[in-house]
Specification:
- There is one protein chain.
- By secondary structure, the chain is an alpha/beta fold.
- It has 2 domains: 4-31 and 282-413, Lyase, Ornithine Decarboxylase, Chain A, domain 1 (Beta Barrel), CATH 2.40.37.10; 34-280, Alanine racemase (TIM Barrel, Alpha-Beta Barrel).
- It is built from 12 helices and 21 strands.
- The chain has helices at 18-25, 34-47, 65-73, 83-91, 108-117, 127-140, 178-187, 208-226, 254-265, 278-281, 314-318, 408-413; strands spanning 4-7, 10-13, 16-17, 29-33, 53-58, 77-80, 99-101, 121-124, 144-151, 173-174, 191-197, 233-235, 271-274, 285-296, 301-305, 324-326, 336-342, 351-359, 366-369, 391-395, 398-403.
- The structure holds ligand LLP.
- Residues 58, 61, 79, 102, 162, 199, 202-203, 237-239, 275-279, 314, 318, 374-375 line the site of ligand LLP.
- Specifically catalyzes the decarboxylation of meso-diaminopimelate (meso-DAP) to L-lysine.
């Protein structure tokens, strides 16, 4: 459930009409609903009730500091994958003891920053990374808490570009080699083993791959404990999928996912960490855009929007579907029309939808891309020299710009011309 609903003939975000935001801030613009973000966070807390746990929001999905503060103030932890994300989480007031650091390529500099600033645990993905972290920690006179990310070799049955748990992927250490890796980690002076980490992919709409992976993690926990390791935490990653269309089948609920966790690893007495991103943020955001032109082509009509692939890359990159809905609710007799929905960028790939049946939009109409809260703004670029677009947070009847639109001067001012030119 989200808080983007029609009321009095138009689409609202909580108690604010989207048209009011468009008028005040301009388009294109990302709009997030605080109530939806908090509701999704609480669903995971409820799903894990009875087990000690920490929900670590995957910052990569939506990294605006205001959003991180909203979630962090409710007790969420954060899963970060770069120094930039670490700094964002800290700037949002999240204490280091609630931040886990994931990612295959943490640099020594990033490790140092997190060790000095405070960190709950590093999720390590290779032996060279273990050695590097041990050296950095030792040089600072501290011991780094670590989990090792194991690759369980299960098929997440999701888009190939976002599956991570097969042995051919770059992520983690093959589960069959985990005992050796843990033995080495335990022997390194700068590391303290605290747990096991796994993440098999994103936008999973079936619980079976989670179940298979978590069973393997449970077995491994027993084996590692028998080897003398203290395994007190299990980080089970993120990946629970969301409905991208209002019409198709509904992916499993967080409560079903919680049951899988309870069933597979609940008996081990470990603290459970999860790293959801998309489920918390995805349906808590829309991309609001305006129709620039309606162009009648050969056998097809184009809806040309002011948003483009640089603002929301998911359709171009993953052939992802986003529902596109009118901001003014169509009246009964308004009629429908098939459009190719495109942006102004000079690439055929700048296509959001092909032959999509939509209301008969006209120039100047506002449209909203649904489910754009996760992997939307964070993946934007300034391709075609289109400045990054703003982000707005709505809470009840208030809204605030939480990231201003980049101005042309700012964008161009970042370049510099060498003295010899
Ligand atoms: N933990 C780790 C280690 C991850 O790599 C990811 C996502 C997550 C947690 C969060 O997964 P989620 O709950 O959001 O599914 N840009 C792609 C998605 C890439 C996901 C990368 N890793 C998209 O737009 O679909």
């Amino acid at each position: 459930m989200d808080h983007f609903l029609y009321r009095d003939g138009e689409l609202w975000a909580e108690d604010v009409p989207l048209a009011e935001i468009a008028a005040a801030v301009g388009t294109p613009v990302y709009v997030y609903s605080a109530a939806t973000l908090l509701r999704h966070l609480s669903l995971f807390d409820e799903a894990l009730k009875g087990m000690p746990h920490l929900v670590c929001f995957a910052v990569k999905a939506l990294s605006n500091v205001a959003v991180l503060k909203l979630l962090g103030d409710e007790g969420a932890g954060m899963d970060v994958v770069s120094e930039g994300e670490y700094r964002r989480a800290r700037a949002a007031g999240v204490p280091g003891e609630r931040i886990v650091f994931s990612g295959v390529g943490k640099t020594r500099g990033e490790m140092r920053t997190a060790l000095i600033g405070g960190i709950r645990q590093f999720n390590l993905e290779s032996e060279p990374e273990m050695r590097a972290l041990s050296e950095v920690a030792t040089s600072l006179g501290v011991v780094a808490p670590v989990a090792i990310r194991v690759n369980p070799d299960v098929d997440a049955k999701t888009h190939a570009k976002i599956a991570t748990g097969k042995s051919e992927n770059k992520f983690g250490i093959p589960i069959a080699k985990a005992r050796e890796a843990y033995a080495e980690a335990a022997s390194l002076p700068g590391l303290k083993v605290v747990g096991i980490d796994v993440h098999i992919g994103s936008q999973l709409t079936d619980l079976a791959p989670f179940e298979a992976a978590y069973r393997k993690v449970a077995e491994l926990t027993e084996v590692l404990r028998a080897d003398g390791h203290e395994i007190t935490r299990l980080d089970l990653g993120g990946g629970l999928g969301i409905p991208y269309t209002r019409s198709n089948e509904v992916p499993p609920l967080p409560s079903d996912y919680g049951d899988v966790i309870r069933r597979t690893v609940g008996h081990l007495g470990c603290e459970i960490e999860i790293e959801p991103g998309r489920l918390i943020a995805g349906n808590a955001g829309v991309l609001l855009s305006r129709v620039i032109y309606v162009k009648e082509g050969e056998g097809r009509d184009f809806l040309i929007l002011d948003a483009a692939m640089n603002d929301l890359v998911r359709p171009a990159m993953y052939d992802a579907h986003h529902d596109i809905v009118p901001v003014r609710e169509p009246a009964a007799g308004d009629g429908l029309r098939a459009f190719d929905v495109v942006g102004p960028v000079c690439e055929t790939g700048d296509t959001f939808a092909r032959a999509r049946t939509l209301p008969a939009f006209r120039e100047g109409d506002l449209v909203a891309f649904r489910s754009a809260g996760a992997y939307g703004a964070v993946m934007a670029s300034e391709y075609n020299s289109r400045p990054l677009i703003p982000e707005v947070l709505v809470q009840r009847d208030q809204f605030a710009v939480i990231r201003a639109r980049t101005s042309y001067d700012e964008m161009i001012g970042r370049d510099s011309i060498p003295a010899w030119l």
